[in-house]
Design a protein that fits this description.
The chain is an alpha+beta fold. It is built from seven helices and 21 strands. The structure holds pyridoxal-5'-phosphate (PLP). One of its GO terms (biological process) is L-leucine biosynthetic process.
Length: about 400
């Protein structure tokens, strides 16, 4: 049982006792017919769904319902629901991989759970026990396990989603919510070989701003980027490079955190990514890249393909478009790459801005610069259980 203060439904002591989310109360209804698994070459990102989903509902009077795993299908929503009218939806994106031992595993899922709780709090959605959400995720993966291919680069993308379902148009927090977790098998992001992407830097639309919601994984952060993305794609770029402020601080690339590699005067290299000032999404991949770079610098690991003596200075530091132009003109901008769960690491080969000449980064044979490649390989090896690092790989069997 959870204890927290409620506004409308207070008991004598001002504290209401309602049921917390409890995975031990899970009921499982299996689908009578399992879907055929479509050929892997038809798997785009998130276009194919597995057989089952988790659903639990929060009611302010009674708390969380007993969670269910049931055949995947549409939810029924009143059109006046908070999430439909006011966008009170938050979500997570994580992946399960099959290890060499044949067991499914997750990558740093505690970070996703903590972020889900922060996103829900930011949208004033009801609280829930994040450990129980993780247990439910593991149960669902176990039920739909046949969808995870064991080939390298393949995984099961997991989309925990929390929606405000209060019915009514008053512009206020939703005291009802639905938690839904579903799965989508995922192939390698780049189907015909890894290649560098292009990004158009835009100054007239912003993704996030100080005091806004950019630091949370909330649905309403994404749709405002669709129109600028369409415009950029018409101009031949694949992603948007998001800027902020008159000084054009570089913030993120599409829905990825951005890193750049800059050669220093002393010949060593800086690995830079913008600091978590509330406008940057605190990515699990971002955190992993920073941690691995620091471990390499401390001599705790040697990143593949890099010299042990290569001094990498990983820094969370603001940089601007002017910095990029200057470092590029000086031949010091060695690499730029995006980091996020879907792609892991994507090199950026070209950065455009209005009518200025594109910044062109050095081309690499396998589509990734040496640092981008080192981080991608290491993170994928840990995700796939080929390497162990700290407590980053978490077995699904261990409920
Ligand atoms: C999800 C997301 C990322 C990457 O986060 P990961 O935890 O690494 O997947 C980066 N930027 C934005 C805007 C995102 O939504």
């Amino acid at each position: 049982m959870a204890l927290w203060k409620t506004v409308g439904n207070s008991t004598l002591d001002g504290v209401s006792r309602v049921a917390d989310l409890d995975a031990s109360k899970l009921t499982i209804t299996l689908s009578e017919t399992l879907k055929p698994i479509p050929p892997r070459d038809t798997w785009l990102f998130g276009n194919i769904m597995t057989d089952h989903m988790v659903v639990a509902e929060f009611d302010p009077e009674t708390g969380w319902s007993n969670p269910e795993i049931k055949p995947r299908g549409p939810l029924s929503l009143d059109p006046a629901s908070s999430c439909v009218q006011y966008g009170t939806t938050v979500f997570e994106g994580m992946k399960a991989y099959i290890g060499p031992d044949g067991k499914p595993r997750l990558f740093r899922p505690d970070m996703n759970m903590a972020r889900l709780a922060r996103s829900a709090e930011r949208m004033a959605l009801p609280p829930f026990n994040i450990d129980q959400v993780l247990v439910l995720i593991k149960q669902l993966i176990t039920v739909d396990r046949r969808w995870i291919p064991s080939s390298s680069g393949y995984s099961l993308y997991i989309r925990p989603t929390l929606m405000g379902t209060r019915m009514g148009l008053s512009v206020a927090a939703s005291d009802h919510a639905t938690l839904c977790i579903f799965l989508s098998p995922a192939g390698p992001y780049f189907r015909s070989g890894v290649k560098a992407i292009s990004a158009l830097a835009v100054a007239d639309t912003v993704r996030a701003w100080p005091g806004g919601t950019g630091g949370h994984k909330v649905a309403l952060n994404y749709s405002p980027g669709f129109l600028p993305l369409r415009v950029a794609q018409k101009q031949g770029y694949e992603q948007i490079l998001w800027l902020l402020g008159d000084d054009m601080k570089v913030t993120e690339a599409g829905a990825m955190n951005i890193f750049i590699v800059v050669k220093r005067d002393d010949g060593e290299i800086n690995l830079l990514t913008p600091p978590l000032d509330g406008t940057i999404l605190p990515g699990v991949t971002r955190d992993s890249v920073l941690a691995l770079a620091k471990a390499h610098a401390a001599g705790e690991i040697i990143l593949p393909g890099l010299q042990q003596t290569l001094r990498i200075h990983a820094q969370e530091r603001t940089f601007t478009m002017d910095d990029l132009w200057r470092w590029s003109a000086d031949g010091r901008l060695l690499e730029a790459f995006g980091a996020g769960t879907a792609v892991i690491i994507a090199s950026i080969g070209k950065i455009g801005f209005k009518s200025r000449e594109d910044i062109i980064l050095a081309e690499h044979e396998d589509g990734l610069g040496p640092l981008a490649n080192a981080f991608r390989t290491t993170i994928l090896d840990i995700q796939e259980g080929k390497e162990a690092w700290k407590d980053w790989g978490v077995l699904v069997d261990e409920l």
